[in-house]
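Hey, quick one: can you model this chain's 3D structure?
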Amino acid sequence: MSYTIDKNLKAGLELLEKGEKVDQALKLINKSARKGTTKGKSFFNVGKIIREGIPGLEASTPESRRYFDQAMVYFLKNENNDSLDYEYMGDYYYLGLGTEPVNRDKALEYYRQAVELGGEDASRKITAIEEEKANGTTDVAPELTAATKVEEKPVAETANSESVEEKPAVYNPSKEDEKASKVVADMEEADQLLIKAIRLLDSPASTEADKRKGVEYTKAASDAGVMRAAVLMGYLYEGHNSLVKENLDEAKKYYQIAISRGSASAEYRLGLLYLNDEASFKDDEKGHQLILSSARRGYPYALNYIGDCFRTKVSDPRYLDLAYRYYSLAGERGLGLSYHNMAEIDASRQEIQLAELHEKYATDNGYNPDLGVQEPLFTTIRA
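Sure thing. Here's the predicted structure for all 383 residues.
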């Protein structure tokens, strides 16, 4: 198998495997997560350690999910993933390690990419999944065990993950690591603050004062490091509301913060801002690149946008087929608007039953046929 691994991560894992110098091993792994060259692998292994536990560190599956999610953020940013990265990504969906549900089809996609790059273990996992599907089993693949070597059980898009401070709290022998533990605890509180903010902003029963308090909570959550809060602040500063005065420069700032934390939705929103004629920083090339990057990471609104672009080129029927394909990808990711767009194309092709089915999917996924719009953005903020 051909892959690269940060030297500190490799050394730390070798010490853990031997059961030697555990504190030193954890220090090396933490250092690789903060400053290493293969951060996806580093964050995955931190998640694995927290999930399985080691002497002196109690196992915690809920806590480990943050690190597996963050590993996926780094993998999806990397345009030159190796076989081990793809195996990690496959295991993320095969084992349900992060906040995303088990998805064997996605796991197969990544395992096959790993095999193409020489990943031998991925071939075995493909066989196991295909046997499970053939036998109709609904069992989740076996969990990782403490005895499993990294080469044998590598693991994990998502996008739907908040960024974890790049100081994984695996142990507490120093003040620096005590601070890292506090960061994780503070992030939990900040997540709850954002939830409270969204409820205030989105509730019909909220007064003007309640909604302004919601804006304050959102800013506080963003300042505390919550990715989705930064996205929401950017959206609010775009000015399509009565609470925050339009300030596109501020919107850009918050979207850039969210992007630095791994947000695909912020890439899309900032891309649109760069295409806005009213923006002082207008730059069509940057805008298109950001939208394409967001689409590559599976963000549904970006996929829908690309579908719209192809759909406008109706002079060539091949473009309509491409538009339909992108709408389908967005619809599969929960965007009702895209199913509605598919239904319109179905109707134009006289495929009435299929159009009716896709219109049903559209309403099931938040599209309002009476208003002709998707539900408000800040009820569906994604990665």
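One thing worth noting: The first helix runs from residue 7 to 18.
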